Amino acid sequence: MANYKAQFKCISGCSEIYPLDEIVYKCKKCGSLLEVHHDMEELSKKSAAEWKALFDKRTGTSQWPYGSGVWSKKEWVLPGVDNENIVSMYEGNSNLFWAKRFGAMFGMNDLWIKMCGNSHTGSFKDLGMTVLVSMVNEMISKGKKIKAVACASTGDTSAALAAYAAYAGIPSIVFLPDNKISTAQLVQPMSNNSIVISMDTDFDGCMKVVQEITRDKSIYLANSMNSLRIEGQKSISVEMVQQFDWEVPDVVIIPGGNLGNVSALGNGFKMMLELGLITKKPRIVLAQAEKANPLYLSYLNGFSEFKPVIPKNTLASAIQIGDPVSVKKAIKILQEFDGIVEQASEDELANAAALADKTGMYACPHTGVALAALIKLLEKQKISKTDKTVVISTAHGLKFSEFKVGYHEKTLAGVNSIHANTPILLPPDAGIVQEAIEKALLAAKN
Asked: Does the pLDDT at position 15 exceed 80?
């Protein structure tokens, strides 16, 4: 493991590099974001077949820390960290769900949902947070004076940071927009003993404050502008290909807000391609809520310009972001992967999630955005029904119970709940109950 090395490198192409244990989030020379750059020459000394065999051997093992879906790929993620400093709850290894019935509704037989919400805190954010908090733990163990880790969040990032920091015994601070996240998301960092700061602003406002706070280098920034987060999320690409017996899907659809995850996905595929584990790239689709759609608007003009927007309230609250920090990284990946950006209205995302639920899923509203984008792109014939397609489900639906209840009670603004399923109120009379059941079964059949 000692031969494998990684460091921060400026994404703009200037020559600046920094060690991963330096507290730095942007290039000091040009102000661009950084990315983790691996010594690919050293990694290429192991053949593709050897990497596949190693990763397959580690999957599900109890040997610390390699049973984690992230740390089973340690050499590709954070090779220099000591195993004893890794902070992991065996995240990853999430189900690649064959959406057989949902896909059949649209003539698809090869539709899959990558259930990233089946994780410790209920979202894909765990995949990046295990890496970031492990690096912080490593730095503290070597004498760095870090007194807390902080993030701005629309709910899922704060939950992941709070849990992993609590597990490591590191104080955490989370900045949340007041009344703009679900109760389940709010209670997670509260329960994990974070300092929870609720602010009368949106995510972008919280992000501005946390960047100011973390200028004090004793408080470490945990948002996705810190590319250590991207390294953990990169494992999603490797993991899904591994689950397909190292076959690459044709299309991958992912909802996007701050846009770190789309660059993480792309980086994972690029790394596999360079090291010979795969021979082609998938097409990447980025799905945005219509009420928070700056990248979609940029896509319409061929990415010739990007303008932040003021996001409106959307049911997909975790991607209610108008000025995403990772936009340049995202555009670069989309251009390299023949990318598409699509948007979904409130009605479209809610009904897509509800339709998926009828086939056995329990989709969060952000997954609903991705599913709605899938439906629209099939109708526009921009993707084919025969494509092997993976939709990234970013969080568990249980974190959004108010959304689910509101849908079935038909109280969501701007949503025609065409798949609502309300309880049937009946007296305790077996005859009446039997009659109601037969009527309901007949209606379901038709």
From this structure: no
DSSP string over 373-415: HHHHHHHTTSS-TTS-EEEEE-BBGGGGHHHHHHHHTT-STT-
Burial class (CB in 10 A: 0-12, 13-18, 19+), 446: exposed
The angle, 0 to 180 degrees and rounded to 10, between the axes of the packed helices 235-243 and 48-58 is 90
The answer to whether residue 18 sits within a structural domain is no
Contacts of 369 (CB under 8 A, 6+ apart): 255, 287, 288, 289, 316, 319, 344, 349, 352
Range of the domain at 291: 96-122+230-408
DSSP 115: E
Check pLDDT > 60 for residue 2: no
DSSP state letter for 241: H
Q: Give 250-272 pLDDT, tens digit per residue.
A: 999 999 998 988 999 999 999 99
Structure tokens at 355: 């339709």
For 62, the token pair is: 């109890």
CATH of the domain at 103: 3.40.50.1100
Could you tell me if residue 17 is inside a domain? Answer: no
- Identify whether 202 is part of a domain: no
Number of domains in the chain: 1
pLDDT digits over 268-283, tens only? 999 999 999 999 999 9
d(CA 95, CA 402) in angstroms, rounded, equals: 25
Distance in angstroms (rounded) separating the CA atoms of residues 73 and 168? 21
Q: Flag whether 313 is in a domain.
A: yes
Cβ contacts of 153 within 8 Å, gap of 6 or more: 159, 161, 174, 175, 176, 181, 203, 206
Per-residue confidence at 14, pLDDT binned at 50, 70, 90? confident
